[in-house]
Amino acid sequence: MSQKRMSETKRKHRFFQSAVGVVAGVLALTSCSSDSTTTSTTSATSSAGGASSSVSPAAQTALDAAYEGVSSDLTALTPVTPQASINLYVVSCGEQVPGCSVPAAAVKEAAEAVGWTVTIADGKLNPEGFATAIRQGVAGGANVIVPIGIGCGVAQAAFQEAVTAGIKIIGGGGVDDCSPKLWAAERLWLEGFTPQQQWEEFGKLQADYAFGKSNGDVKAVVLSFTTQVWGPWISGGFEAELETLGGGEVLTTIQVSDPEIADGSYIQKVTTALLANPDANTLVVPVDGWLTNGLSQAIVSAQLDDKLLVIGRGGDAAALDLIRQGGAGLDATIGTAVQWGGWGSIDTAARVLAGEKGVYIGESMQAIDQENNMPASGQYTGNIDYQAAFKAAWGV
Q1: For 331-381, what is each residue's pLDDT tens digit?
Q2: What is the 3-state secondary structure (H, E, C) of 259-319?
Q3: Which end of the chain has the smaller Cβ count within 10 Å, N or C?
Q4: In degrees to the nearest 10, what's the CA dihedral of 218, 45, 314, 182?
Q5: What is d(CA 322, CA 328) in angstroms, rounded to the nearest whole number?
Q6: In Å, what is the CA distance from 284 to each residue of 68, 266, 314, 358?
Q7: How many whole angstroms separate alpha carbon 46 and alpha carbon 68?
Q8: Sign of the C-alpha dihedral computed for residues 94, 96, 99 and 104 taken in this order
């Protein structure tokens, strides 16, 4: 080995050791502890923080597709009269993270708009907690249970108990992957998309954004959520779209579970993987809350922010604040109007209780960065007045 090569190897080794020490410190600290929208057409950049550069037509097309995203205007929403005196339980996947608590609160708000009684039960980010919260609904005499971001299979026994008790389960972003199916209805998104394809679309848009911003030279570390059935669908959607686009590669896929999120151990797991893949220029994260609960801080502390394009999913207010700030360990996210979706769950429940089928509620999703689709403040809520549309359909 040449002297120059040996010197470079030693330098990288010293940096790795130093960065891991910084990450450990951040982990220790972590464990202790609808406004107007800006939209513009932006050229892709050559790096996470680089200046604008000329890009291929394919890269610009992918970036434009990410910014446009997918949505509905709810003009096809038909009237329905919600039943009176309904006792509804919202099972939140975990009230400590906005990706669960914000849509849970939206379901509560929508249900109260039609006069229903509502209780939020905290699933506490683990399957045992999900089951306990579902059983709270059974014990509380619920007529309807809406599980937020929770699939059927992860708490099948508890869902079966609820169905046996005569309770109707209405999807709140998760899927009925039980066999046989147990839920009265999943929440429908857009015509032509199955529930699985909806989750894959998040990954697809992440890939479009990464491909556009890197001019087709994606070298990604991908985080895959293992607790919920939809986790691999997001990461699978990213990989499939990257292959379709014909540029870039996934260097490694890191599996992360709810227990690792709850105890914070995912932070060191992810940053160590990033340091072990020095060629990585993109980090793909399936839940914004993972970044705002310590991972973004660890990325900055380990001096990885300048070389990485970090793409989340959710559009949480805290995540958008990091993007607005710049240089804070999160560059973009695929925003999804989860509050819109929460109101859609109540629309679905009202129709099922009226003996009808659910309709497509069409919550929007699109790439958000500093210059594109960024709300002036707060949470991403989509591009229409969805509350007015639902209230008109419900006659309230």
Answers
A1: 999 999 999 999 999 999 999 999 999 999 999 999 999 999 999 999 999
A2: HHHHHCCHHHHHHHHHHCCCCCCEEECCCHHHHHHHHHHHHHHCCCCCCCEEEEEECCHHH
A3: N
A4: -40
A5: 6
A6: 19, 14, 12, 32
A7: 21
A8: positive
Provide the 8-state DSSP code for 177.
-
User: Using an 8 Å Cβ cutoff, are 301 and 310 in contact?
Assistant: no
The two three-digit tokens of residue 208, written as one number: 């479009």
Contacts for 106 with CB less than 8 Å, ≥ 6 apart: 338, 339, 340, 341, 342, 343
Q: Give the dihedral of Cα atoms 360, 62, 308, 36; nearest 10 deg.
A: -50
Of 181, 237, 209, 234, give the one whose Cα is nearest residue 45.
Answer: 209
Other Cβ atoms within 10 Å of 248 Cβ, number: 20
271 in Cβ contact with 304 (< 8 Å)? yes
Task: Region of 198 please: left (phi>0), alpha (psi -120 to 50) or beta.
Answer: alpha
- Residue partners of 205: CB distance under 8 A and separation at least 6: 65, 66, 69, 334, 365, 366, 367
> Please, what's the largest Cα pairwise distance for the chain?
80
Average pLDDT over residues 208-229: 96
Ordered domains of the chain (ranges, CATH): 45-70+195-336 (3.40.50.2300), 87-191+338-363+385-394 (3.40.50.2300)
* SS3 label, residue 114: coil
Can you give the C-alpha Rg of the chain in angstroms? 22
Both tokens assigned to 66: 């990410």
Q: What stretches of 165-247 show up as alpha helix (H) in DSSP?
A: 195-213, 230-245
3-class secondary-structure state, position 221: strand
Euclidean distance between CA atoms 298 and 236, whole angstroms: 26
- Residues constituting the chain: 396
**At how many degrees (to 10) do helices 386-394 and 98-113 cross?**
40
